[in-house]
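F.,

This is the one I mentioned.
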């Protein structure tokens, strides 16, 4: 009797468990998918789970066949494989080239022409109370007008051998300045507003100081030389100046002018004007330098001209 009761109790307990697993709807055990409890791991060989969290894969044990990777269903868009992200090399830019300073040109030798403040090929004319400090020479011409009221602080040479020799030396110096070709710096038009270092500056046309003043910077070199070559004219407009700084000297500045030079009203200029044709200084212009022409005239109008100190 006791054994029979025990068997009946076990059968009743098993029936209750099956009913619970079957949701209470019968005695047949439901083999469909079972939702996985979060945080649990499916039992190998057990029923498939629904919505289970993927577990990190582990290496297969020896003798166990790995589950093959399933291909995507027909029509599905495959997930693109992204290339690996590699560090991008930052390009290295070459340093900006800074041009070196040009060689300091050799001094232009003027010979006996250096004794003159004015040297003309034809005539010298002055209007008003101009003041000239230095000798005045004319050759092959011999005409001078306007002295007085203009004042000459020097010696006058009209068509004499001294003026003739000075003109010859001027031609030699002019040709030397024109022929310079060592590392020229190409310039054109208006030089105003610039600060220039010693060197050789070359223009195939005209040059001017018009928009602003021009500064010549010797950079502390008392022997610094500036040479300006121009095929045509030189023009300095009203009130403009050429300034010297850091040891620059008027005696070491040379302007080789292919035709004529004009210094405007109230302008202030420096250097040796080596001019092929003529030089005109308009009203109240100032020149610290020399006005030297090969064939033309020098014209003054209440101006101040002082031969520079070497």
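My design for it:
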């Amino acid at each position: 009797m006791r054994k029979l009761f025990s068997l009946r109790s076990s059968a009743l307990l098993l029936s209750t468990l099956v009913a619970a697993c079957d949701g209470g709807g019968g005695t047949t055990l439901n083999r469909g998918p079972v939702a996985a409890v979060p945080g649990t791991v499916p039992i190998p060989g057990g029923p498939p789970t629904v919505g289970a969290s993927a577990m990190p894969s582990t290496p297969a044990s020896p003798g166990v066949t790995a589950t093959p990777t399933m291909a995507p269903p027909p029509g599905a868009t495959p997930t693109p494989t992204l290339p690996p992200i590699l560090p991008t090399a930052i390009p290295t830019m070459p340093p900006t080239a800074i041009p070196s300073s040009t060689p300091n040109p050799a001094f232009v030798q003027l010979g006996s022409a250096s004794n003159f403040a004015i040297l003309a090929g034809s005539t010298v004319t002055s209007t008003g109370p101009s003041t000239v400090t230095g000798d005045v020479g004319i050759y092959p011409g011999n005409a001078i007008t306007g002295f007085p009221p203009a004042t000459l602080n020097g010696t006058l040479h009209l068509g004499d051998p001294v003026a003739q020799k000075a003109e010859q030396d001027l031609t030699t110096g002019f040709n030397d300045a024109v022929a310079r070709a060592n590392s020229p710096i190409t310039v054109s038009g208006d030089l105003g507003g610039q600060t220039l270092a010693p060197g050789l500056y070359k223009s195939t046309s005209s040059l001017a100081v018009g928009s602003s003043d021009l500064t010549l910077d010797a950079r502390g070199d008392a022997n610094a030389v500036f040479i300006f070559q121009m095929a045509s004219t030189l023009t300095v407009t009203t009130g403009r100046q050429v300034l010297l700084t850091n040891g620059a000297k008027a005696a070491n500045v040379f302007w080789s002018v292919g035709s004529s030079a004009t210094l405007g009203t109230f302008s202030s200029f420096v250097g040796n004007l080596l001019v092929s044709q003529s030089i005109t200084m308009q009203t109240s212009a100032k020149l610290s330098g020399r006005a030297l022409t090969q064939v033309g005239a020098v014209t003054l109008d209440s101006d101040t001209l002082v031969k520079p100190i070497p």
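Residues 1-44, 46-58, 86-100 have pLDDT under 50 and may be disordered.

Talk soon.
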